[in-house]
Amino acid sequence: MIFDKKYAIFDMDGTLVDSMKYWDHVCCDFIRELGIYEDGLMETVNPMTLNQMVDYLNGRFNLTLSAETIIGRMRELMRVHYENDVIIKPGVLRFLDSLKEQGVPMCVASTTPTNLVELCLDRLDLKKYFSFAVSAETVGKGKTEPDIYLYAAERLGGTPEETMVFEDAMKAGQTAKRAGFSVTAVYDETSKSEWDAFKSFADCIVEDWQTID
Predict the structure, then answer these.
(1) Could you write out the DSSP letters of every residue in 129-155?
(2) What are the angstrom distances between the C-alpha of 196 and each of 50, 136, 199, 206?
(3) Which residue in 8, 15, 9 sits closest to 169, CA to CA?
(4) Are 167 and 191 in contact (CB under 8 A)?
(5) 35 vs 12, higher pLDDT
(6) Nearest alpha carbon to residue 95 among 171, 16, 39
(7) What average pLDDT score do residues 175-197 get?
């Protein structure tokens, strides 16, 4: 992989760390507690903020639960996973070390709530690679809109044309691409059904971080 951009924006879940399977379980387990199941749910809600996810779940399944109830439960379940189970994807550290040695300014842009992003990056000692981490909570919109990428690029000091976005979710990748960013598609097992479509428009492809030269 030839990295020819000045700046890099990394998604966290499914891109840097192996955590999407836990998010998948959290969302699906939550609605299963209500006697509901739907194939492909995680792929639909992945680019959303938690507040957007709540609105979707309430609308899609005619729920009457408060945002505080749904978000509080999901955050607590994920906090346990970030504290104990989530690991860095094999090969990621070698790639981050390479970009750091080249002096590439990097940041994390995630739809995960701020406190969980900080918990994850701290526990796995990833903060040293990034100038900052931003959650969709900060900009108030999920990755169906380009705001988080534009905000991150501006804070890094670059433009979309100068910046590569690393994403595992196709819909998030589409958003970044439409906003003028170059996009690297990162494979994650939880998004395998959309992988071929993602590869069709991505500028670079990471099937496995361990194979990146």
Answers:
(1) G-SEEEEHHHHT--TTSTHHHHHHHHH
(2) 27, 26, 5, 12
(3) 15
(4) no
(5) 12
(6) 16
(7) 95
Q: Which letter does DSSP use for residue 165 in this model?
A: E
pLDDT tens digits, 139-155: 999 999 999 999 999 99
- Count of helices and strands (H, E) across the chain: 10, 8
Q: Which residue has the tokens 């981050």?
A: 96
pTM (two decimals) = 0.86
DSSP structure string for the chain: -----SEEEE--BTTTEE-HHHHHHHHHHHHHHTT---TTHHHHHTTS-HHHHHHHHHHHTT----HHHHHHHHHHHHHHHHHHT-EEPTTHHHHHHHHHHTT--EEEEESS-HHHHHHHHHHTT-GGG-SEEEEHHHHT--TTSTHHHHHHHHHHT--GGGEEEEES-HHHHHHHHHTT-EEEEE--GGGGGGHHHHHHH-SEEES-GGG--
| CA dist., res. 45 & res. 134, Å (int) | 19
